[in-house]
Write a structure and sequence with these properties.
By secondary structure, this protein is of the alpha/beta class. Among the domains are: 1-35 and 69-90 and 357-393, no CATH class; 130-200, no CATH class. Helices cover 35% and strands 17% of the residues. The protein contains 13 helices and twelve strands. The chain has helices at residues 38-52, 76-79, 102-106, 109-117, 134-140, 148-164, 170-179, 184-200, 235-259, 289-298, 318-321, 335-343, 353-359, and strands at 6-11, 17-20, 27-31, 56-61, 94-99, 121-125, 220-224, 269-273, 304-310, 326-329, 365-370, 375-381. Strands 2-1-12-11-10-3-9-8-4-7-5-6 form a twelve-stranded mixed beta sheet, sandwiched between helices. A hairpin with a 4-residue loop joins strand 11 (365-370) and strand 12 (375-381). Helix 6 (148-164) crosses helix 7. The longest helix has 25 residues, at 235-259. Bound molecules: adenosine-5'-triphosphate (ATP) and magnesium ion (MG). Adenosine-5'-triphosphate is lined by residues 32, 34-40, 78, 311, 363-364, 381, 383, 388, 390-391.
């Protein structure tokens, strides 16, 4: 039974193994204050998913720490205990996706070479301008779609789609803008924004490339967003939004094919997001929030699972939080965050959740709340097989 589940750790009271079922799509929240082991726990779950090798795993990594999963955990005090879980210390097959040019983003060809020598596959990721809807192009530049610039940019992107299908570049959008009726000043202002988009180096410049080509089903796919500044244009959110939208569409098609008994080679997908409050925050919109809410609410049927980690559960949008039927809670001390977790509690949870959370101390001590099993279990998360990259220098 445990072999088909994700082994998380041991029950702190009686030492029995605790696992998380993964035969159906899941939505899991990992939370706790800083330094309590959220990213480490996320890594444990990713190792377990990788061991099962059933589904595609995509990790959204805003800190650039997950590539170290390619290396074995060097800490003997940690790995000594792995036999209790029938696991061994090992590195995993890792595919790092880097928005833009990896050599430039990582600051040197020798860095990329060294990572490759260590068995890490590194690929540059560029978005196709057609991966963004006309609305997204306007949102990206914070343009009102009813304002002069917004109307013009919206029309230009739409025109490109009609003329070239999916195969157009930023220059084609610029060419459409030039052809339009309108004030030269407005056209120039849009042109400047498109030039800026060029300079971000996250868009394809030569040809249309199906994003699907870069995800590897057999590896842990890691989207390294640490290489782009969060900044005011929300480029990190944009990259995630485009990937998530694409995967959602592909899995919806695959699900229909499976239901009709037609051949389908696209596996189900687990999306694991560290520091998730940046991508689907409560109280403000971001380019990625809409698709993540959709993923959480409608993604079960097409086989899309979600793992979100955050030190501020209260800062994650409620539409996503309420979908998380499994919550892995590390120590928290902020009242807002207690409240956010308590508000999700169902009737089966007796009083005293805050005091049970307060009792958690060392890293990796958690309370696992499972709405389906109607259980609240204190769990010591198991050691990592691979190297955890979260430490500070
Ligand atoms: N289950 C565990 N077993 C052993 N050590 C752990 C465990 N969980 C976490 N640690 C250790 O605790 C430290 C903090 O872990 P981690 O980086 O995952 O924290 P975090 O909650 O993600 O923090 P932040 O909010 O700053 O990102 C790390 O040095 C890690 O090695
Ligand atoms: Mg972390």
């Amino acid at each position: 039974m445990l072999d088909n589940n994700l082994v998380l750790g041991k029950e702190m009271d009686d030492g029995s193994l605790v696992s998380i079922p993964c035969c159906t799509s899941q939505r899991i929240l990992v939370c706790g204050k800083t330094g309590t082991g959220k990213s480490y726990t996320l890594g444990v779950l990713i190792e377990e998913l990788s061991r099962l090798n059933n589904d595609i795993v995509l990790v959204v990594d805003p800190q650039g720490i997950f590539w170290s999963m390619a290396e074995q955990n060097p800490s003997f005090t940690e790995t000594d205990k792995l036999w209790e879980y029938s696991r061994d210390a090992r590195g995993f097959n890792v595919n790092v996706l880097v928005p833009g040019d990896p050599v430039e983003r990582y600051g040197g060809a020798d860095i990329v070479d060294e990572m490759r020598k260590r068995g890490i596959n590194i690929q540059g990721l560029r978005l196709n301008p057609s991966d963004l809807t006309p609305e997204m192009w306007c949102d990206l530049f914070d343009l009102d779609i009813n304002g002069l610039m917004g109307i013009m940019l919206f029309k230009a992107v739409r025109q490109c789609g009609q003329r070239h299908g999916r195969e157009f570049l930023i220059d084609d959008i610029a060419a459409e803008v030039i052809k339009m009726h309108g004030l030269d000043q407005t056209k120039e202002a849009i042109q400047r924004k498109l030039d800026m988009a060029h300079d971000w180096q996250i868009f394809e410049e030569h040809r249309y490339r199906e994003i699907w080509e870069i995800l590897q089903p057999e590896a842990i796919n890691i989207l390294d967003l640490s290489v782009i500044a969060q900044g005011r244009y929300g480029l990190r959110n944009l990259v995630l939004a485009v990937l998530a939208t694409f995967i959602f569409r592909m899995r919806t098609i695959a699900r229909r094919r499976e239901a009709l008994g037609l051949a389908s080679d696209m596996r189900k997908v687990w999306l694991a997001i560290d520091e998730a409050h940046n991508f689907c925050p409560s109280g403000r919109s971001t380019l990625s929030k809409e698709i993540l809410i959709r993923w959480a609410k409608e993604g079960r049927q097409p086989g899309l699972s979600l793992l979100v980690a955050s030190q501020q559960p209260a800062a994650i949008d409620a539409e996503i939080l309420t979908q998380c039927g499994i919550r892995i809670v590390h120590r928290i001390t902020s009242r807002d965050d207690y409240r956010a977790i308590d508000a999700l509690s169902q009737d089966y949870i007796s009083d005293g959740l805050p005091s049970r959370i307060k009792q958690l101390s060392g890293p990796g001590q958690t309370l696992v709340i499972d709405d389906e099993r109607e259980s609240v279990v204190p769990v010591q998360v198991r050691p990592r097989q691979s190297l955890h990259g979260g430490g500070s220098a």
